């Protein structure tokens, strides 16, 4: 699914237009309205804090990593090691939030113990925080165990992934003073000096008022950088569409809702408009800063092929 107005060329145009209307409503939603939605962005979240420091929670960029249980493999520790190898993590510009989003107490207890052992200095310095969401935030069907039925298992997995994003985005928005949010997964590795490559790119493009998100990886929802101000809307959309469409489609709908101005600009021809809109709205770094390494998915039985990016 392309990340902007190409959606309207899809043969399912009526359905997409309906989602577009809903997206517009979300983009104009704010906490001052009379809406009283259970679990809405206005409602304060209270996750389980497995460990956090008392360091002030002011950072330029928050890096969020939701992590779910896999049957035979864990990639999170390898991911964190490559992230923390960059010396720029010590500049107090960045904070990493790991959200353990599986409600298996034994697994979470083991993970927290190992994270505290392997990354104690990052935790105590305030660079790394570990949380676990409240179970009641999740619809019951997203908490069901996999049944060995491919279609049903996929829908459970996809719905829970959307709710994970909804919770993480909302929590980070509510709790921290920051400017940007970078979405990562728990099965990627970072290139060397990734922060020193990412920061100049942000500084070069952040003056463009029109940008919607920046790309630091060319695969799925990995390594998209959002403004803090957009996170409540994204959280609401993940939660409202959790059982309907995948997370990357939700991000595309969000992008469509914010890119109408460029898409309708009559100063450009259609061909020029596409490239200009992409450059202005979705700045993309030339070389991906993150590589996906996860072969075993958190969806039971699903194997991912290695994609070199």
Automatic annotation (TrEMBL):
UniProt-listed GO biological process terms: protein N-linked glycosylation
Keyword Glycosyltransferase carried by entry: yes
Taxonomic superkingdom: Eukaryota
UniProt keyword terms in alphabetical order: Glycosyltransferase, Transferase
Gene Ontology MF term list: alpha-1,3-mannosylglycoprotein 4-beta-N-acetylglucosaminyltransferase activity
Residues in MGAT4 conserved region domain copies: 42-307
Keyword Glycosyltransferase: yes
E.C. number(s) listed in UniProt: 2.4.1.145
Pfam families: MGAT4_cons (PF04666)
Protein's UniProt name: MGAT4A_B
Organism: Lepeophtheirus salmonis (Salmon louse)
